[in-house]
Amino acid sequence: MKVILLGITGQVGFELQRALAPIAEVYRSGYGDNMRLDLCDFAGIEKSVRDFVPDVVINAAGFTAVDKAETEREHATIVNADAPGVLARAAAKIGAAIIHYSTDYVFDGEGCEPRSEFASTSPLNHYGASKLAGEVVVATENARHLILRTSWVYAVHGKNFPKTILRLASTRDVISVVSDQIGAPTGAPLLADATTHALLKLLDDSSAFGLYHLVAGGEASWYELAIFLCEQAKAQGLLQKVPEIKPISSVEYPTPAKRPLNSRLSTEKFRTNFSLSLPHWKDGINHFVLELARAKL
Ligand SMILES: NC(=O)c1ccc[n+]([C@@H]2O[C@H](COP(=O)([O-])OP(=O)(O)OC[C@H]3O[C@@H](n4cnc5c(N)ncnc54)[C@H](OP(=O)(O)O)[C@@H]3O)[C@@H](O)[C@H]2O)c1
Asked: For 243-286, how does the pLDDT look when each residue is reduced to its tens digit (9 = 90+)?
């Protein structure tokens, strides 16, 4: 199987390279050399797809700076919506499928129930709006699409909340963390492995294409995540002590882009259609901490 993979310098793209290696010949693009396929270069995207003739295009690239997207709206829209549309259309022209990642930020965060794929969308910020536009155009341009909405992504490779918390925890006695936003911290390794399993199933069963929620099991606030993470990090010798962690509300931590309070996503459709279980987020954080601890040895 031939795969074009975009975004290999990112958290998910980096892990996808590992997960896809046993099943696919991967055309990597995303490093800052001549191989970098810029999502703003629509002609370049079309040419790459035409020349490499992949079976699948996987788009793990995106404009992911949520607050910056408020001021760089046009750029965010090009990368998160227009370019995925070009990719999806180019893939459809040669009969290739497309896998694309989206976000819990397509929802407004009202209520406290997990949302299904059928729930109505209403993004609170431009990042969410641009990702929602990307979902729509990918689905419209290519019937053979797998769109995976995920949340709160972290990995050893990349910039993310858990790494920021560990850095702050090693230098401060007290840290304040938002406690009224609830979601599922999801490791990039889990996303990459689950995507690869889903892709294998899609090779045999094209009825499974569509839109899915894909996050780790369980739920937590950023505050609960920070506490669990710091405790595990202390147990593994990454932190000398767990700092005092104070819960604060989103109102006390204003950001340029408003975040949804309820980011719970139901993964029933994904687990059922792909016969997979999604481990609890604490399992992923434990693995993340162990990996960081071993890297320090
Ligand atoms: N991070 C999260 O918490 C989160 C939550 C929900 C959904 N998602 C979605 O999951 C997907 C993967 O996220 P991630 O956390 O792995 O992202 P990430 O670590 O921020 O990486 C983003 C990737 O996109 C690439 N990229 C950005 N602009 C590009 C452009 N114009 N042309 C080509 N490549 C470009 C970057 O390449 P360079 O390094 O070369 O710029 C990088 O490889 C995205 O679709 C994101 O929206 C993420």
From this structure: 999 999 999 998 999 999 999 999 999 999 999 999 999 999 99
Q: Which amino acids bring their CB within 6 angstroms of ligand 1? A: 6-7, 9-13, 30, 32, 38-40, 60-64, 79, 101, 103, 131, 150-153, 158
Predicted confidence (pLDDT) per residue in 120-139, tens digit: 999 999 999 999 999 999 99
- Determine what percent of the chain falls in helix, strand and coil, rounding each to the nearest 5: 45, 20, 35
293 CB-near residues (< 8 Å, 6+ apart): 233, 236, 237, 238
Q: Tell me the residue type at 271.
A: R
Full 3-state SS string of 9-64: CCHHHHHHHHHHCCCCEEEEECCCCCCCCCCCCHHHHHHHHHHHCCCEEEECCCCC
Closest C-alpha to ligand 1, atom 4: 153
Residues labelled catalytic: 127
Q: How far is the C-alpha of 94 from the C-alpha of 114, rounded, in Å?
A: 37
The encoded tokens of residue 90 equal 């180019």
* AA letter at 213: H
Query: Measured in angstroms, how far is the CA atom of residue 125 from the centroid of ligand 1?
Result: 17
Tokens describing residue 225:
């995540």
Give the C-alpha distances (Å, rounded to integers) separating 252 from 176, 180, 196. Answer: 10, 11, 40
Structural domains in the chain?
A: 2-151+187-216+265-279 (3.40.50.720)
Q: Which of 12, 66, 72 to mutate to test the pocket of ligand 1 (most atoms within 8 A of CB)?
A: 12
Identify the CA nearest to 226 among candidates 156, 151, 163. 163
If you measure from the C-alpha of residue 179 to the centroid of ligand 1, how many angstroms do you get, rounded to a whole number?
25
